[in-house]
Every structure is written in structure tokens, then in C-alpha cells.
Design brief:
Blueprint: E1 21-23, E2 26-29, E3 42-50, E4 66-68, E5 81-83, E6 90-93, E7 96-106, E8 109-113, E9 115-117, E10 127-134, E11 141-149, H1 152-155, E12 162-167, E13 174-180, E14 184-190, E15 201-207, E16 211-216, E17 219-225, E18 243-251, H2 261-265, E19 270-284, E20 296-300, E21 303-307, E22 316-322, E23 330-335, E24 339-342, E25 351-358, E26 370-372, E27 379-384, E28 394-395, E29 399-404, H3 423-426, E30 430-438, E31 447-454, E32 465-470, E33 473-479, H4 481-485, E34 491-498, E35 506-515, E36 519-520, E37 522-526, E38 537-541, E39 544-548, E40 557-563, E41 571-572, E42 582-585, E43 593-601, E44 614-617, H5 623-632, H6 653-659, E45 671-677, E46 680-689, E47 696-702, E48 711-712, E49 716-722, E50 725-730, E51 739-745
Parallel strand pairs: 5-8, 27-28
Antiparallel strand pairs: 1-2, 2-51, 3-19, 4-9, 6-7, 7-8, 7-19, 9-18, 10-15, 10-19, 11-12, 11-18, 12-13, 13-14, 15-16, 16-17, 20-21, 21-24, 22-23, 22-25, 25-26, 27-37, 29-30, 30-35, 30-36, 31-34, 31-37, 32-33, 32-35, 38-39, 39-42, 40-41, 40-43, 43-44, 45-46, 46-50, 47-48, 47-51, 49-50
């Protein structure tokens, strides 16, 4: 835990290890070892722990922990507390460790607290380090659970390395994990929904020979890897050696903004509470994982939600899909979670799914098969009769008369109907004589009315028969749900095409028939399909095609199909939510003819027929085309497109073109690192490479990652070049609150 800058690039957590942003012909780039979360196909073996469950003594176990005492010159961070080993500041009670900070004048200091460590008693190399704890909040509070290299006595800090598993500055809605070794890297985890560090959470650190992953309550949020932390660093990468554990509650210091002692005193007393500390070793598995069980598939609007049970010793899961029961299946996703939402589906098509588990040894057999039919209905009304909201059905409304029945607890069979309502809809009902009236509809337009029913009371035919009228016309006479479904607790749907009355209303009347009383489980009124777009145009430009079309009444959005063959088949561009009447299809090969169709989407099955086909041919791009030819033999090579990451580095061809890099060489990448300047707390070095002739490199900074506003750095020294590496020194750095990136410009690299 240090006062050095906690460096963050503007890299979102979900992005790969390197990132790129194109703005007005310049490229902004920065990189640290932030990548995808690491998952281990290994079992965990507990090798050390402290559960703090002593009932005979309030003393900390001195066979596991030792204390550091004093202030030690503020511990290099201007801290204000005096650490002690007394039970006033660290004690065990109620199954918890309490690290207690308080106002207490001791040895010339106003505050006392505790700092514990396992140095000389326990250390570990790799594995999972896990704390369950809660933190205080308030001005000047600096709680931390962290680790230091065992060779600190020989190398000192930061050469020994430091891993901050979790620390916080008194603000309750976030925590952060960091590494320090002469080069810093940090990511923040933000709590949501009113949660905070003041509640108990499990903080895990998964540490291997080439990565360190942080998680909160099982959710990974940061991964650091060795390749992002060694270049230009005067110290060797230290995270492949043993580390010992530390816990402390500091008060004041650089990290918390050096508040006044009076402000800190107002926050005290405070304490860290630790439920347990556990250290595990990873034991590699020697067999493939077992087959996943319990696969379910649920249509959620125009997508399918899959859920299954976790398999032991699993790295990831292959999600496989077919349009015929029994396959053949195509793998369309590999995920680490036990759920997946398939959005690349076509409305009203039945999809069949299986899931297999994967680890380093092999792949399991396929799970049970589960099927679902996505539907993109766009509802004008969807009502749960006699019940509360069950999306997309709203709570019972627009009715007059009738009585609400008790809710059923039975499971409703829906396999015999297409696009059933949620289970909750069939478990409720309104019964008796009643009328639903839906207003505001468009006269002269045909709507689809779907009446949902399930017999949840009677257990045989002939026990309920009733009538239904739509706009005064009888559509069901002595309707028997049980006889229609063939069983109790089984869904049926009656569907009709209905044109609203002159007043824009659809009226649905339920009346008692020959036996018992009428009932309704739910009602849908569905918008009609939109017409095909007209007036579609396509204009070819360098590496892109600009499309435009006329608006379609009733369309919520538009889909675009593209092909390189006239007449298709067309590939949906999967651009969700195009609500405008224009779109630019980018990243295309130069000198190539593309064919397009556009369809309007209102969410209805089989809605939105394709427009007439249009076509356009992309043009060449001069210098960029020559560059594409140099590396890919032709501008039309699919790998040569500007938005393609040809060598898998996370830096696409357009970036490498402007930055002067080789798009076919994974080691040809641009790297930005930030390092502190020895004995200069207000200075920070920006180290980047490679520096290529004909380019300009302009440093930018921000102190507010949320706003996304970047400012050109001024008052800096450099750049100082050493071979193909350059160093810029920020002479007025703001520790722990400043973030950097490099704007790369190339006036000789024209690209439209």
C-alpha cells in the first residue's frame, strides 16, 4: 500500500489487453496488462487460514501474525497513526478479527491503529488468497489487505513487489486492486444498488505464473499480466516469487488526500472486521469435466436465455445450437458463466441447444437438449388477467367486472403452444362475467389478438364452458379449456385477426356459458408487421458504403442484410437498434461490390419484408491501399480491412497503419507505461515505444475518467529518446488522481 499513483488508462474493463481509439485522424493509445478474467481448471486445496474463531482469548494468534509498531516516518505515505500490538487496536471477538483505529494520543501521535503481517511465519507463491471482510468509511480511513515480496530486506520497495488485494480511501462505493513494482497498475470495482465496502464481501486474488486476477464475491474485475509491467522498468518483474500477507487500517496520508487531523478524528473510532483469511493452492485436474446438467432454454423476447448447472474442474463451456432436434450442432459461444443469452437468432425459429464443459484435459459430452422459440412481438397491450406484472405482460388492467382467483402454485405445461406467456400469466385468472376494452388503436389496421388460457381449477372436461365475444362478434362458444388442452395445468392460445372499431377500440367480452364461469389468464394485442422500406440508396466510398432509406410507419428499428452476391444470401449486420434511416457500413475491402437489403422491425414474427436490393462498390484509398497490398498482397483481402485485428494484438490495421507498425507481426505493438520518478513525488514518467519517423506523439491527461474529457499535457519535459523508446516526464503530476494517454498523429498517412 503506497502513495504512488494508482494508474488507470481509459480502458474499459470489458476490453482486451490493448485498446485503440480513432479521433479525427489521430490515434489515442495506452496499455497495461488488463485482460480477460482468468479461470482455472483446477481444484483448490487449503494450505493456510485464520478463521478468528477463538473463544478462549481475544489475542491475535502470534503463530500466524506479527505486528509492526510505530509510525516509521508516515510509512512513506504521510500516514498519521501510531501502530500498536495491543488488544485496544487488534483483537479477536465474535468470530471476527477487529483492527481498530481510534483517537488516542500516543508517542506524539493523535491516532492509534494496528498493522499485522505474516512475514517470517507464512508466505505463498501462486494460488488463491481470499479475505472475507468489511471496511469502514469516512474521512481519512485507509483500510487495506495486501501482500509484499519476501525479498524486501534485500531489494527494498518497490523492487520486492507489492500486490494490493483490496484497499479503499474511505469512500464506501468502490474498492481497488493494484500491483506495484516500479510500474503501477490498478483497476477499480464499483459497488451498485446501494452496496458498499461497509458490508461483508469476499475478496479473491487468483495468482498464477503469468497473471493475477482480482474478484469481488466471485465476480472478476481485473487481470494483470507480466508482459505489461517489465519494459522500461529498472526492476525485474517480481511476481514470480513468494509473498507474505499484511492487513492494516491507516489514518490519513497521501492516498486519502491528506485530510486534517480534526477531520479524521470526527470519523473515529472505526475498524476493519475480518471473518477469515484463507490461502489455497491450485491442484491441476487430470480428467475432463463432467457433463453439465439442468440445461434450460427460455425465449425472452427476440433472444434466448440459457441456464445450466456448474460442472466441477471446468474452465469454460461450449454453447452449441441447431435448428433440428438432435443436431448437428454448431458451437456459437464459449463462456465461463453458467448462463448465456443468444441474441443472434431469428424470430419464430425453433432453436435446439446443448452445452459441454471444457478444461485443459478435454471436453465433456453434451448436456441434455433444450429448445426455445424467440419472438420479437411488439405489444400494444399484454395483460396478465387477475395478476401482477410478468414482463412483457403488465398487471391486470382495462377490465370491468369479474373476480380475481387465488394464484395457482402448479407448473403449467406450455410445450404445446407457440410463444407462450410467462408461467405467472397462466397461474392467475379473472373469472365471471367481465369485459376488457383496449383503446387508442389505429382504425383500418389488422391486429393479432391472442387469448391465453390454462385450466388451473377443474380436473376434467365438461366442468367449465364459457363464451367470448370480440367487438360484439362471438369467437368462442361454450369453450372448454380442459377439453381443448387435453389436461389440467396446460396452456392453450386462441388467436384472431381483429380490426378496431371506429372509435379505435377492441372490446373482449367473457360471459358464462353452459357450465360454471368464464375465465381469462391473459390477453395480447400485437402490432401488425411494418411494410418493406422504400427509397433505399447505397453510395460506395473508400472502405465503406453509405446507406439511406425512407422511414416506415410503425417501425421501431431497422435490420440490414449484406452480401457479396447479387440476390444473397444476405448476412445480417447485427447492428441492433438502428432507429435512424441511414447507416454507414465501414471496414470494407476496397474495390468490392456489396449488395444490401433493409427491413423494418416492429418485433413481430415474420415481420418486415426486405426492401428491393441495392448495391455499391467501394473505391480505392491510395496510400492505405498500397499499405494493404504491402502486407496483405491486395486491398480486397478480408484481413486487410481497416477495422480487422489481423495479428490478434487488439490493435487493428488502421491503428497500425497510422502508428507505423507491422499488422502481421504480433510483437509489433505500441506500449505506454507510467512510472514514478525516484525522490520526485510530483513527477511521473510516460514511457512509450516504438517511436516511428513521420509521427507526432502528444501526451494527454484527465483527472476525471467519468467525463471522458482529455486535455493536452503541458509543463512536461522531453521527449527523451533511447533507440525506439521515448520518455516524457510530467513535471506537475497529481498522485493517485491523474490518467494518461498518447495521441499519435501522422500527416503522411491519408485515410478518408
Amino acid at each position: 500500500m503506497t502513495a504512488l499513483r494508482r494508474l488507470l488508462t481509459s480502458l474499459p474493463r470489458t476490453k482486451p489487453a490493448s485498446w485503440m481509439l480513432v479521433l479525427g485522424g489521430s490515434l489515442l493509445f495506452g496499455m497495461f496488462g488488463v485482460g480477460a478474467p482468468t479461470t482455472y481448471a483446477q481444484s483448490l486445496t487449503l494450505i493456510w487460514s485464520d478463521e478468528f474463531n477463538s473463544v478462549t482469548s481475544s489475542n491475535v494468534d502470534n503463530t500466524k501474525w506479527t505486528f509492526e509498531s510505530g509510525n516509521n516516518g508516515g510509512w512513506g505515505n504521510n500516514e498519521l497513526e501510531f501502530y500498536t500490538s495491543r488488544t485496544n487496536n487488534a483483537y479477536v471477538g465474535g468470530g471476527l478479527l477487529h483492527i481498530h483505529a481510534q483517537v488516542e494520543n500516543t508517542n506524539g501521535f493523535r491516532f492509534t491503529s494496528a498493522r499485522m503481517k505474516t512475514q517470517g511465519l507464512f508466505w505463498t507463491l501462486y494460488g488463491r488468497i481470499e479475505w472475507r471482510s468489511r471496511f469502514p468509511s469516512g474521512t481519512g480511513m485507509w483500510p487495506a489487505l495486501w501482500m509484499m515480496g519476501t525479498n524486501i530486506a534485500n531489494l527494498g520497495w518497490p523492487g520486492c513487489g507489492e500486490i494490493d488485494v483490496v484497499e479503499n480511501n474511505g469512500t464506501p462505493n468502490f474498492e481497488q486492486g493494484s500491483i506495484h513494482s516500479g510500474t503501477d497498475a490498478t483497476q477499480i470495482y464499483n459497488f451498485t444498488g446501494g452496496d458498499s465496502v461497509t458490508n461483508f464481501h469476499v475478496y479473491d486474488l487468483d495468482w498464477t505464473s503469468n497473471s493475477i486476477t482480482w474478484s469481488v464475491d466471485g465476480t472478476p474485475y481485473e487481470t494483470q499480466t507480466s508482459w505489461g509491467s517489465s519494459t522500461g522498468n529498472p526492476y525485474p518483474f517480481p511476481f514470480n516469487q513468494p509473498f507474505f500477507l499484511l492487513m492494516n487500517l491507516a489514518t490519513g496520508g497521501n492516498y486519502v488526500g491528506n485530510p486534517s487531523t480534526n477531520a479524521i478524528a470526527a470519523s473515529l473510532p472505526q475498524e476493519i472486521q475480518v471473518d477469515y483469511v484463507r490461502v489455497y493452492q491450485f491442484v491441476p485436474t487430470t480428467i475432463p469435466p463432467p457433463t453439465p446438467t439442468g440445461l434450460t432454454a427460455t425465449a425472452i423476447g427476440p433472444s434466448v436465455l440459457l441456464n445450466w448447472n456448474a460442472s466441477t474442474n471446468t474452465v469454460s463451456y461450449n454453447v452449441k445450437r441447431a435448428t433440428h432436434s438432435g443436431g448437428p450442432y454448431t458451437t456459437n459461444a464459449n463462456v465461463t458463466a453458467t448462463s448465456f443469452t443468444d441474441s443472434s437468432v431469428t424470430n419464430c425459429t425453433i432453436y435446439y441447444y446443448v452445452v459441454s464443459a471444457v478444461n485443459a484435459v478435454g471436453e465433456s459430452t453434451n448436456s441434455n437438449e433444450a429448445a426455445a422459440t424467440p419472438v420479437g412481438y411488439s405489444y400494444y397491450f399484454a395483460v396478465n388477467s387477475g395478476g401482477s406484472a410478468a414482463s412483457p405482460f403488465v398487471a391486470d388492467t382495462d377490465e370491468v367486472g369479474g373476480t380475481v382467483a387465488a394464484t395457482s402454485t402448479a407448473t403449467i405445461v406450455t410445450s404445446s403452444v407457440t410463444n407462450p406467456a410467462p408461467q405467472a400469466v397462466y397461474k392467475t385468472e379473472r373469472y365471471g362475467n367481465f369485459v376488457y376494452t383496449f383503446s387508442g388503436l389505429t382504425t383500418g389496421t389488422s391486429y393479432t389478438v391472442r387469448l391465453h388460457e390454462a385450466e388451473i381449477y377443474w380436473s376434467g372436461a365438461g366442468q367449465r364452458e364459457f363464451n367470448v365475444f370480440i367487438n360484439g362478434k362471438q369467437v368462442l362458444t361454450n369453450f372448454d379449456i380442459f377439453a381443448r388442452a387435453g389436461a389440467m395445468n396446460t396452456a392453450v392460445i386462441e388467436q384472431y385477426a381483429v380490426t378496431p372499431m371506429a372509435n379505435g377500440q377492441i372490446s373482449i367480452t367473457y360471459s358464462n356459458g353452459a357450465v360454471d364461469q368464464a375465465k381469462s389468464s391473459g390477453i395480447e394485442i400485437i402490432l401488425p408487421a411494418p411494410a418493406a422500406p422504400v427509397g433505399v440508396t447505397a453510395t460506395g466510398e473508400v472502405g465503406q458504403v453509405v446507406l439511406a432509406w425512407s422511414a416506415v410507419p410503425g417501425a421501431a428499428s431497422y435490420d440490414i442484410g449484406r452480401s457479396t452476391i447479387s440476390g444473397g444470401p444476405y448476412t445480417n449486420l447485427m447492428v441492433s437498434g438502428i432507429t435512424t434511416t441511414n447507416y454507414t457500413d465501414t471496414g470494407l475491402a476496397s474495390g468490392t461490390t456489396y449488395y444490401y437489403v433493409v427491413s423494418a422491425v416492429a418485433g413481430v414474427c415474420d415481420a418486415g419484408t426486405n426492401s428491393a436490393q441495392v448495391s455499391a462498390t467501394t473505391t480505392g484509398s491510395g496510400a492505405f491501399a498500397a499499405w494493404q497490398t504491402q502486407y496483405f498482397n491486395s486491398p480486397t483481402n478480408p484481413l486487410a480491412a481497416g477495422n480487422v485485428d489481423a495479428d490478434g494484438t487488439g490493435q487493428n490495421n488502421l491503428f497500425k497503419y497510422v502508428a507505423g507498425l507491422d499488422p502481421t507481426n504480433p510483437s509489433s505493438i505500441f506500449i505506454l507505461m507510467v512510472a514514478s520518478v525516484t525522490n520526485q513525488p510530483t513527477q511521473m514518467n510516460l514511457i512509450f515505444n516504438p517511436v516511428v519517423g513521420g509521427r507526432t506523439y502528444t501526451p494527454q491527461f484527465t483527472t476525471d475518467m467519468v467525463s471522458g474529457v482529455w486535455t493536452q499535457l503541458t509543463g512536461y519535459a522531453g521527449p527523451v529518446t533511447n533507440g525506439n523508446q521515448a520518455t516524457i516526464t510530467d513535471m506537475n503530476a497529481v498522485p493517485s488522481n491523474e490518467f494518461y494517454r498518447i495521441d499519435i498523429g501522422c500527416n503522411t498517412c491519408p485515410y478518408p
